[in-house]
Structure formats: C-alpha cells, structure tokens
Amino acid sequence: MNLKKYLLLGSVALGLGVTTSCVGDLDLEPNDPNQTSQTGSMQFYLGALAKCYSGMAVSGQNGAGSSDISGLDNGTGCYSRALFMMNVFPTDEAIWIWKDAGVVDLVTNTWDASNGNIYGTYSRLYTHIATCNDFLTMTADVPGEEMAKLRAEARALRAMSYYWVIDIFGNGSFVTEKEPDPRQATRKELFDFVESELCEVAGIEIAADGTISEGTNLLDSGVYGRLGRDAALGLLSRLYLNAEVYTGTPQYKKCAAVSDFVISRHSGGFQGSGLAEDYLYLFCASNRDYQGASGEILWAIPYEKDQIQSYGGTTFLIAASIANELGMSQTNYGLSSAWKCMHATLQFSKKFEEGDARDAMWVKGEQKWTEKNDKGEEEEKSANYIADNTEFSEWTNGYAVIKFTNLLKGDGNGDPKDFGGTFWNAASFADGYASAFASTDLPMIRLAEMYLNYTESYILGGAQAADMQKALNYVNYVRQRSGIKAWGNGDLTADNILDERCREMYWELTRRSDLVRHHKFTGPNQAMWAWKGNTLSGSRIADRYDLMPIPTNTLAAQPEFKQNPGY
User: Fold this and answer.
1) DSSP-derived secondary structure for 68-132
2) pTM above 0.85, yes or no
C-alpha cells in the first residue's frame, strides 16, 4: 500500500481520545467526517492508519492552515516543527532571528513551564499517541495477518511519540488502548514500554550480552511512506544510546548490537555501506529514491507540494533558511517563498572541515549580484555573510545554513551551489517548478546514524560494548562519504564523535539529546555558543534545562502530576 495515496485522500474519522487529563485545555477538532470506504473494510482501516501517519506530517486534515488541535498556531504546532523547536533551537545548531513570543526563550535557554511552544509540543505528542490508541482500540478484535501488521505499525508510531516524551520531558502521561485512564509514568517506565513495544513488533529479543534472537517480525519493509522493521530498530538503537540518561543504566552493548543488525541488512551505495553516494541528495525532492529496504533513509515523513502541505516539515526547514535577497534566490532552492529567519551560530559553523560536502550549500562571505534601480539601470550589489552573531536579529550575522532543498537531483557532478550546472536537475528550474510547499520528504531515521551509534557505543562503552576496528571503519564510511579524511584510532574520542554527529545529523532532531548525553548542555563542562543564556558570548545555564518542564496547563488539569526538578 502506497501511504501517500491515503494521505492525499484524507483519513477516515477517528474518535480521538485526548482529554484535558492528558494535555490540558487544548481541544481536538473533528476530522473530515466524509468516509469514502465502508466501515469495517480493509480500506477503511488503511485510511484510519493513515491518520496515525498524517498526524506526524501535517497540522490538520484540511490543508496547511488547519489544525487537529485548537489554541495553537498551525505552523509551530506541526509535529516535526514542534520537535525541532525543542531539540535544535536550544542548541548551537541554529538561531531563529525573529523574537517571537516563546520561541526566543527556547533559542536563548530562558524558558519556563508557561512557555506556549513547550505546551504545544507536549499536546501534539499526546494528540498523536491518542490517535494511535484509538486505531488500536478500533481494531482490537479484527483478525488476520494483515491487520496484525497494521496494528504493529500503529504501535511503532506510538512508540516514537513516547520516545520523544522520554527524551524531552522525562516523566509523562501514560495511556494506551489497554490502560485508558491516564497516569504519570516515570522516565524508566516509559523507557521499558517503548523498548518492549519496538522489540515485539520488530520480532527480536536482545540479551544482556547483546545477542539478538529473531522471532516474528510484524512490520513490512520497503513500502514507501510506511515505517518498517529497520526504522523501528533504528529508533531502538537511539533509545539504547541514551539509556544512561533516561534510566541511569548504560546500554551501549545493546545499542551496538541493534545498530550492527540494521547495518548488516544494507549494502550498495557508497563503498558498499548502504549509504547514499551523495549526502545532499538525501535532503532534496528526489530523496524518496533513497528510501525503502535498501535505502539509507530508514523512514521519512512524506510530503507533496500540492496535497501534503504543511508549514512544518521540510517547507519550514527550507523556507526559514533562505532569503530572496542579499545574494540568494528562493527559486534556486525550488520554493516560491523565503522566510529569512534561521541561520547558523558561529560555533556551529566552525565544526566543518574544508571540503566537507555537508556544508556545501551554505551561503558564506561576500555575495555579489546585480539588480535594477529606480531608473531601470543595472546596479551591482553585495552583502557580506559573516560567521559571527553579534546582532541577534540581523540576517547576515551568521552563515545561511542550507541543508534541505526542494530541487531534484542531477547527475552528481559539479558544485551544489552552481545552480546552472548538473548537480541539480535542470527540470528543477523550469517555469512553474518553484512552489509554496516542498515535495522533499523529511528523514526521521537514517542508516548513517546507525554507523555513528555503533562507533559511539565503543567510545563510551569500551571494548565490552563494541569492536574498535569496526567502530573506526563505521565512522570512516560517514566521514569519507562527505569527502574528508579518515580517522585513526587516536581520533576515537567522545568530543570527536559528538562533533561528527553534529556535522552529519544537524537539524535532524538529535542535537540537544547528544549534548545532554555528553554532559555538554548543562553542568560544569557545558559548551558555550552565541546567545546561550541570552548573552552574546554564551553563559552557563542551570541543570534543570536538561529537561523541558511539564507544562503549567497540564499540571493545572492533572494536579497529581509532578513537575520536573528546578521548575
């Protein structure tokens, strides 16, 4: 089943079970009541499952301006954009130069429990969990192998949302189709639940020594748009990598084992590693070519410029990072709109070595162009993009970070910034191609992360967790694919792997957790970056910021819930 077909048709109505006891005073709006298939048919259930997917892609079911939850901006409240605000804005990976209420507090690490975007993220996660719960309730007594697989997908998607609760909030409300009455669960309880769900639907058991036994896999793989076995195991690898933070007990041996298991199922591509030959093609409008059973993208949220539209997702990531002035043209990135509001910190821009393909599209330094003046005469113009962030809201004070684009891939030759060349397909620049919304899918889990997870498991867990030579080989696949020199044994250090993760996975929702895991976000060894703590040079922030607070509105609706320490 092609999921995009069902996303385009719109999902059937679900009786969503979110109440104020879960998320506070946000109300769910009803979905489209027009059902195009008979209740109880497989098409009906496929449509219902599609809502579990579309809840992660779009804000609502009636276009980019709609939302499943009221009281929250439909752009910032989109699932992936809400996660981006929690996991990237508080770090060194980006500055949002518009001082929007609530957002500036995230960028400057000065938030509190009343922050509306934190509340919106908590609400969006539990709205999605409720959607999955309702699907599982609806289908509890439906027999058959196909239904078992659909239910496994819903469980895996729900596990992903619970993973974000664990990562961002620690403790959180717990409710399933089997336990419909919400209660506040500890971080450890949520961890155990997510681990159990992912292992069961992916059909594996993992012993304490990292030995993996295979059982019955309930997840299909290689079907465009749908979450398969490798994606579920990729999420499990990420869970184990952060286990010491989440539970107090490290699980690097399990992380290495699961990562290696996923890697073993992939081949081809760059030096037979399963990685794509061109890094930037993973983030363009052709990136669906790198999805599926043999692709580097283990799972991505689908987008389509005409019918799967959102002010979150990849439209947000592209539009926010480009301008239509000062030496940039929005049509060079395949969009008809440019927001000009998100760029790099000085500290982030310093992490890349010369020749690294991963910052090849960035706009740096002096830019020159010509434009007509009031008299119709051509005049030469210039703008200088500097690395420093001396002015918070000045667009050129910080390099323009371009990771995602709405262009189609070319033959891989030439400079990615030479828009008249062959790196990008000429069809990307035809009249009418540029659109208000992107068709670039949003990668949520990639094979490259599994390579880095294995290497970090060795670095942090030692020889008892992973093999040193394999760890070195794995990280060097990632580095050499980007055109930079291979590491030697002496380069396998905690600081180096943290920086390598930043270079490879920036803007892919992992930076805050990576910094927390390495004790670089807060604490005595915390890193500094521009405007951290709301000072130009950066200042220390308190330990409480390792977790987001439980929102004030949630505590008011559920007074027996406990707040996170320090808030």
Assistant:
1) SBSSS-TTTTSHHHHHHHHHTTTSTT-EE-S--TTHHHHHTT---TT-HHHHHHHHHHHHHHHHH
2) yes
